[in-house]
Predict the 3D structure of the following.
Amino acid sequence: MTAATSPVAIPERAEGRTILVVARKELADALASRWFWMWVAAFAGLAATLALVALPGSRVAASASFSRTAASLVALVQVIVPLMGLTLGAQAIASQREHGALRFLLSHPVNRTEAFWGIYLGLAAALVTAVAAGFGAAGLVTAIRTGGTRTGAFLWIAVGAAILVLAMLGIGMLVSTFTRRTSSALGIAVFIWLGLVFLGDLGLMGTAVATRMPVSALFAVTVANPVEAFRLAALASFTRSLDVLGPAGTYAVNVLGDALVPVIVGVLGLWFVLPAAAAWARFRSPRQDL
Amino acid sequence: MIRRAASAAAVVVLLAATPTAAEAAADLQAIVDGAEPGAVIELEAGTYRGGVVIDKPLTLRPAGDGEVVVDGGGVGTVITVDAPDVTIEGLVVRASGDTLDREEAGIYVNEPRAKILDNRLEDVLFGIFLHQAPDSVVRGNTIGAKDLFIARRGDGLRLWESHRTLVADNVVDGGRDAVFWFCDELTIRGNRISNGRYGLHFMYSDAVVVEGNALIDNSVGSYLMYSKDLTLRRNLISGNNGPSGYGVGLKDMDGAELADNLIVGNRVGVFLDNSPQTVGVTQEFHGNLVAYNQIGILFLPSVRGNVFWANAFVDNSVQVGVQGGGRFSGNAWTHEGIGNHWSDYAGYDADGDGIGDVPYRLDDLYDALLDRNPEIMLFAETPAAKALDLAARAFPVIEPRPKVVDEAPLVRPPRLPDPPFDLGVEPGPALLVASTLMLAFAGAVVGSARRPWRSSR
Amino acid sequence: MIEIRNLTKRYGPVTVVDDFSLEVPAGEAVALWGPNGAGKTTVVRCILGLVDYEGTIVVDGLDARTRGKAVRSRIGYVAQELAFYDDMAVLDVLDYSAALRGLTMERVDEVVETFRLGDHRTKRVGELSGGLKQRLGLAAALLPDPPVLLLDEPTASLDAHSREETIGLFEDLRAQGRTIVLTTHHMEEMGMLVDRVVAMENGRIVTECPPGELAERLGLRVWLHLIVDPDERSEAQRVLEEAGLGARRNAAGLVVEVPAQEKGRALALLHRAGIELRDLEVWT
């Protein structure tokens, strides 16, 4: 064993190969964790149960009852999927930093961009797997019980849930880059979850009831929430129009017309891209000490 | 010079190739004019020019299996019937004009006892228009529409002062309404009406029976207005989701009866506006499945005199709503000791007689807020709305007055009516395949992630 | 091999490393010595690019700031805490490290062999003893056969047996001609094996010298607690004070302050006076 002296050519820019190595390790870690499987079991179990109970056995109502299954599924996704993405994302960097694993990783010829996107990609793969398992289970039950109704809408919701979970992962990782301790990162993540899923909507309902805020503002603020953007995008797939959402929905349909769904999907897309990009920008900055 | 000679020769050849079509197009009016009253005219296959007026009783039908097309060329009404006892059967009627105020139609009937049977109408503004044509039969027709903005379309089917007409087994798709003005004692049976504005629209039409129809994906399934003693039974009313869409809307009705209908997946299942309008008149709703609608039954606040029994209210986002909130009473949810089935009933049936031992009370806080603030419909079905109800129940600081009290709720749904149509929900493999693929994907990821960097140990 | 010029690191208002310069030629082993908080670990982290810094660090002719990946490809690093990836198996950690460096799995097998980790390959890192963790850390650091090794407190948390083992490994590494920088906060066995000790305090270099001269250079003093029989204590005190060593008595014996490099002198004085020493403690 002799000490190597010939310099190896290593490009300083991010390399896909290194990102993949980190991603595969993160994915393997996530899949080895008990927590992850509890999420998957809870989500898949509840989704399948919803599909099972939503139908009183009348085939004629299959199409309509699909809307029902879909609505319940969307509500389930709204609750579970953001929590899943946020907590996993919030732990991602903070806990590795806390345990020194991040230092171990970055003492290799790995730059921060590679480390960040490797972690992101690995966790993203794990989360998308969880969503696919949940929707697969629900879809299987629905298919067996009612035959293939509205496959397109079902897949659309699944894709929406996948984008939502990735958006939440990005937000979680952004929290993670700002927090030194895992416990505070988790606390913040849970608080954000509460805000996006419950407090935001409740606040808006209260404001609408108390102040008669214009439906335009109501719609705009609501759709800015990624969890709500997901719900509205999903609704648009299995009801023919967002008119079912009352005056605010009608307003949106009238004002945005054909642009409605692209706008909602665009909002979701921004939430998918921006927090992750911000987290990356912060993490890669050399000013960030590890 | 040479070229001109060549083109002239080509024209001659084309004319010679389709002599029958060319002659027929010129001749349908002549054929009709030349026929004796009461004649049965069997038309050879081919395309005939529209704008035909029939002024004597006769029958038009194809001679054989070949398609007989009457083409209006986009101008005026294709076939006008100005005599009683005319039968038009098995034709393809196509391309009327598109001027709404001239009521340009595929088939326009001005005299009684017409029989319009098994025709196919395409690209027409109005489809079949019966104007003062009582005792007619409109059966088995397929009626399409012009590709126009919905407000500029005509009605697929319009009857005006045409009493006692039978409208059966027609398929109407994409028109504005199937509308009935001042027509008493109609029978509307087995029609399928979809993708229009108002599926079935009744104005001042009394004692009508509507049964076994499918009203699907219209803005409003069936709008009943200013009419008396209408019976709506065993219809399938689904997916009617317009901005102010209803499965069934009742405005200023008296004595309507809705029985054994499947009212599923509409924005509002049944909308009640000043119906019954006469004090003392009762309207009955029984045996209906009202399921998966955003709002099951929506009342305007002053509505009273309706009795609901043996219906199943299943998983409507809002089971019963009152538009604008306010006082709401005078409707009954129990009839001779039989109430309705409510999917959100949380009571019990200790004595096992099928009737819940505690009344069903509808008093959700979110619902109550929604009645007054329809804009928060935006949050229907959200975890936040559910949390609101849960919190209101756990800490009953604000106790909303129950909108509905059903003293004898049915713990099990009554037998559901059979659908009048198979909706064509094929148990296809697409979803099965898609979900299996999703599970396979998840499995593959899990399987591949086990040992990331070496194939074996 | 390593050139550090004017390295300064501040955490907010606190200056952890203050204008630190050091040159380590290829093949030299240097110990950064100092109490906790002296800035040793921070210097190591700066070399690895884990923290931002002012000044210049050049490793093997490459600027650590702009060529971080290339620099780290030349460095094997053993962290102080070694608490990484408790849930991973030993072999998985090595595989991961090798994959990150683009090394083959055969190289991992070689290292497993060299460090006698074969019996522990499927154990979780969290189950390993301190010594095994240290071995695993070194194994991972040596996967790329690096010219430079950075060892952060390599013997801090080890029992006597593991310490001995680590020292054995360390001697091998020196014999292989690697450039080594290690940090330590007490000068015991490991510190004595390097070519040069750099003593740090409050982020600055206090002195540099071969390890044997350190105590004298720093004027370090220690207290000897000498346990002698009560009836001989006053005699002992007299002997020591005559030789110029201030001694005071306590319940068990005498406490004498001596320069760190002259501990033996006090013992020799007592021995010559025929006073029997029962026991001895060294207080620093």
User: Anything to note?
Assistant: The radius of gyration of chain C is 23 Å. Chain C has ten helices and 14 strands.
